[in-house]
Amino acid sequence: MAALLSLDQALELLLRLADEEPIEEVESLSLVEAEGRVLAEDLIAGVDLPPWPNSAMDGYALRLADWQGQPLPVSQKIFAGQAPAPLQPGSCARIFTGAPLPDGADCIEMQENCELLEDGRVRFLQPLIAQRHIRPQGQETRVGQRVLGAGTRLGPVQLALAASLGQAQLGVRRRLRVALLSTGDELVEPGLPLGPGQIYNSNRVLLGGWLRRLGCSVLDLGILPDDLQQTRARLLQAQDVDLILSSGGVSVGEADFLGQVLREEGALELWKLALKPGKPLTCGRYAGVPVIGLPGNPASSLVTFALLARPYLLRRLGVERVQPLRLQVPAGFAWPKAGGRREYLRVRLDGGQALAHPNQSSGLLISADWADGLLEVPEGVTFEVGERVGFIPFSELFG
Ligand code: AMP
Ligand code: MG
């Protein structure tokens, strides 16, 4: 038997393929439209942030050297959005959060530590400290600084950062176009009656929704029957795409026509992964278009998409960090027998411990709904209750 390919090896191969075919077209989008997309060029700060020193507090601004412990008169009031006059020597300025610091001031005291006297002067109740409560110019970014790198995925924080720099449009990579195929004679779309031996197509919804969340535009080619002619014809429909993503039908079984067509007319690598669930995976090319064939069992589709297809897609868009965050969490159960394949268990975090769903069958999705994420059990590893094990939250994977 051929040696199994480790998950790390498979990922490395896929990322190399992705690096060879980066999406290069760029479109300029408004910040709202750019949500979830990948930045195509570095974002360089065109302004200092903040653009001028300003107050972090509601209070009073003064020059520390003017103060020997005596109350000071208030010479001006500065609200956010106003341009202050230089500070009159021997006085203080009423100032509010976000208002520019007047020239000459070098200290702000918050109003809670000040007493406004009846004659209008302000007494400072505690020792004052230079630069206190002042946000200096350029504290966050300086003109010319690289704030976001090309390849950054744009979420609310990154878009808000671009907004704070005054950027209205961003250059982003065009959407990846992915043709989605569900293979199998047994599949029926929800809403239609089930015939004998048939099941509803769930992978189409799982993978289609996931692809859209990743910012892909999906060409849904529906269900592909287990038939040679139709497999060929359907693959040829998927020409103007960056990837054909299929589920099912890729092994070397008699009804695995997708695998057969790819082997005979395309280029096919059939990988047997040291992975559970999700042992068989196809990677190939048909009429020039890259193909990734995921295993058909829903939990296998989920795991292989999460750990292989998702990073591949992100890397095509130039994303550098394509791996999901892994947290270390204590196991709420023991793993006494080391396995030969890396296993991903559907687990829930309960009281800070990972509990595994009792049914880890690759045919089930219901345990993935129950779970908060995947516990990563490397090949050859055992662990005791309480030992820390790698955990990937679903929120990392689906975002
Ligand atoms: P296959 O990889 O085609 O041998 O399929 C493996 C298992 O996954 C079989 O039990 C299939 O019925 C099931 N399966 C394949 N595709 C889907 C799908 N799109 N939705 C739900 N189950 C599927
Ligand atoms: Mg099948």
From TrEMBL:
Describe the location of the MoaB/Mog domain by residue ranges. Answer: 179-315
| One MF annotation (Gene Ontology) recorded for this entry | molybdopterin molybdotransferase activity
One annotated GO biological process? Mo-molybdopterin cofactor biosynthetic process
Pfam families cross-referenced by the UniProt entry:
MoCF_biosynth, MoeA_C, MoeA_N
What chemistry does it catalyse, as a reaction equation? adenylyl-molybdopterin + molybdate = Mo-molybdopterin + AMP + H(+)
What are the record keywords, sorted? Magnesium, Metal-binding, Molybdenum, Molybdenum cofactor biosynthesis, Transferase
State the needed cofactors, names only: Mg(2+)
- Domain of life, per the record? Bacteria
What are its E.C. numbers? 2.10.1.1
GO cellular component terms, A-Z: cytosol
**Pathway assigned to this chain's UniProt record:** Cofactor biosynthesis; molybdopterin biosynthesis
Keyword check for Membrane, yes or no.
no
Q: Where are the transmembrane segments?
A: none
The reply to whether Calcium figures as a keyword in the UniProt entry is: no
PANTHER family associated with the record: GEPHYRIN, MOLYBDOPTERIN BIOSYNTHESIS PROTEIN
User: Per its UniProt record, what NCBIfam families does this chain match?
Assistant: Glp_gephyrin, molyb_syn
Sequence similarity? Belongs to the MoeA family.
UniProt function note: Catalyzes the insertion of molybdate into adenylated molybdopterin with the concomitant release of AMP.
Protein name according to UniProt: Molybdopterin molybdenumtransferase
Organism, by scientific name, is Pseudomonas mangrovi
